[in-house]
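Human:
If only I could read backbone structure tokens as easily as an amino acid sequence. I am handing you a single protein, as its sequence and its fold in token form. I hope you can help me see how the letters and the tokens relate. Thank you; the sequence and its tokens follow:
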Amino acid sequence: LVLAFTTLFLAINTVINGNTKTIAMMRVFGYSQKECCRAILGGYRPLSYIGFIIGTVYQYGLLRLMVDIVFKDVEGVPTYKFDFPTMLISLACFITIYEIMMYIYSEKIKKISIKEIMIE
């Protein structure tokens, strides 16, 4: 989880820092904060949810492979089955944390100074 949140933090920071001039120009042309956020960060939302689904299927497949093939001759290894309620809890936590981070960074976009960008 620490690695996942660190990666998310670095990715969002990189996107924001790489697009500061674009954000400043959008604001000069009259785009609202919401429109800027949607243009810069909005495209990553569906990809993150798809990534969650792909990661869940991958981890389930990997664990099934380990239990069914690698450790099939080992005594005491329990059968592994998918825990759907836990996956729903994980999904809810992921969505909550992801949306909170998007809100925090949308506030950071609002604080980008057009004057500082123009001085560069």
